[in-house]
Amino acid sequence: MILSNMEVLAEIEAGRLNIIPPPQKASFGPGSVDLTLGDKLHVWPDESATSGQPLDLAHPDFNVPNVIDRWCEEKYINEDQPFVLKPNTLVIGYTHEVITLPKHLGGRIEGRSRYARLGISIHATAPTVQPGYRGSLALEINNVGPFVIHLKPRLAIAQLIIERTGLPPTEAYAGEFQGQGAN
Fold this sequence. Notes:
By secondary structure, the chain is α+β, with helices and mostly antiparallel strands. It is 14% helix and 34% strand.
C-alpha cells in the first residue's frame, strides 16, 4: 500500500523514516516526495573505451561497485559547472538526500513525468528500495530524448514512493549497496 503524504510525514515525525536533509513542504505530492540530485556522478567512458570488454554477470566474483570503480570517472557538478548529458548517454547519479527506511517500510524511486516527457529516465529497471535500506539512492540517469540536458545539483529529478510491508521482513536489507553515496 502506498503511503499518502500525511502518512509519510507521520513516519518522519515519529523518527521511523529518515530523509536527510528533511524535505520541504513543496516536495510532497499526494503519494510521493521529491528527491534531488547530489553533486557526484559516475560517468561511463565512451563506447570506444569499453568496446569488446566482456562482463560475465554470472561469475561468482562479479561485483557491480567494482565495475563502476574501474570504468567510471567520478565527476562533481555545481551550479556553475553542470554535467552536460547528451542524447543516448547514461550516467550514475545519487540523491542529495540520505534515506533510512525502517523494516516495516519499503519504497520505489521513480522519475518525474515532466522530465520523462523529454526522454530522461532515472532508473533502468531497478526502482525498489528495500526495507532497512540506508544511504543515498543511485539514479541511472539516461537521456533517450533529442535534447542536451544540463544536470545541476539539487534538481528535483526523482520521487520516492513509500510503501508499507504486510509483515516486516525477517531481516533488514544488508546488501552491497547499503550506505552508498552517503556523506
